[in-house]
# Entry
Amino acid sequence: MRGILWLQEIIPAAYDSVGHKAAYLGRLLKGDYPVPPGFVLTHELLRQHRRCDWEHDLSEALERLPGPWIARSSSSAEDSQGMAFPGLFKTILGLSSVTSVADAVEEVVSSLTSDAVEAYALHHRRQSQEFRMAVLIQHMLNPQSSGVAFSRHPTGSREMVAIEATYGLGAPLVDGRITPDLVLVDESGRTDFVRIGSKRIRASLVNTHVQYDEATEDDRRRPAITIRDARSIACMARHLEATLGEPQDIEWAIENHRLYLLQSRPITTLAVK
# Structure
């Protein structure tokens, strides 16, 4: 059954089958960007076949991918022009068995028909039934720090990259449970730590489970990334904008002193200058 594609196998002809997120990451992985390895279950596979038809192939693919794993949505709707579906599709962290991954795949697919997704689609004069859902499975990192970055400052300035950073996994930042650090980096590499956020909660992977702990007072007062880290993130964000031809909103993580790219999508609410 040819319904599972590794990120490096994705070609333009398969973009409709794998969704925007996987298509972007496959393109960037082949462009030598540091994307964690993974594969995608195409929407045709998940729509036309039952779990008993694809679970064996999933098991074989997982044998080639170091665990633990993360299951992520990759639909034809999210990260498209004018529609982001922010946080509305499921992401399942810390998966450690074939059964848990298969369960997660079904949960991600089912999120396409949630009330929140339907309401968001209707707000944009669309129907959720129009969209297709593929599911991306990747090796899950356990980073020392993570966050988001915008290749343009919210004002649209080309000269400034804006970075938000926190300790550990990015889940508390995405969920809005913490105030992250805010760092600006200009084209010359000048770095300004505009805000040292509270970062009171740290999420980390412990024995394949996501654990939330209170950060120490010292950690809250220190920046989650170094000047060198900030410059590396800013450099990657600018390269991504040049590669993809438009300003980018990226998710990044640093594990064992190595910078990884987790996601890249267009910034659609920017007055570009």
